[in-house]
Amino acid sequence: MIRSELLQALAKENPELRAEDVESALDTFFEEIGQRLADGGRVELRGFGAFSTRHRESRVGRNPRTGESVEVPEKRVPYFKPGKEMRAKLNVS
């Protein structure tokens, strides 16, 4: 699903809202999650999962084109852990 499909689904489920209001709410939702992660926090959506960041140490990588060694700096990367209900939905037999 892409962003426009999500906007359409939300608008269909909430016909009393204008398209601009749905888009504004979705923008706010994503912005708040991104800002919390940027601040080093965690976002937990019960039944769905939790967003957090993980620290990656610096390392020496390789340029695949030239084979030359490249220093990759340390960084934080986003991480998602699905909730119990989400895992159950994904693994229905």
UniProtKB/TrEMBL annotation:
<comment type="subunit">
    <text>Heterodimer of an alpha and a beta chain.</text>
</comment>
<comment type="function">
    <text>This protein is one of the two subunits of integration host factor, a specific DNA-binding protein that functions in genetic recombination as well as in transcriptional and translational control.</text>
</comment>
<protein>
    <recommendedName>
        <fullName>Integration host factor subunit beta</fullName>
    </recommendedName>
</protein>
<dbReference type="InterPro" id="IPR010992">
    <property type="entry name" value="IHF-like_DNA-bd_dom_sf"/>
</dbReference>
<keyword id="KW-0805">Transcription regulation</keyword>
<comment type="similarity">
    <text>Belongs to the bacterial histone-like protein family.</text>
</comment>
<keyword id="KW-0238">DNA-binding</keyword>
<keyword id="KW-0810">Translation regulation</keyword>
<keyword id="KW-0233">DNA recombination</keyword>
<feature type="region of interest" description="Disordered">
    <location>
        <begin position="55"/>
        <end position="74"/>
    </location>
</feature>
<dbReference type="InterPro" id="IPR005685">
    <property type="entry name" value="IHF_beta"/>
</dbReference>
<dbReference type="InterPro" id="IPR000119">
    <property type="entry name" value="Hist_DNA-bd"/>
</dbReference>
<dbReference type="Pfam" id="PF00216">
    <property type="entry name" value="Bac_DNA_binding"/>
</dbReference>
<dbReference type="InterPro" id="IPR020816">
    <property type="entry name" value="Histone-like_DNA-bd_CS"/>
</dbReference>
<keyword id="KW-0804">Transcription</keyword>
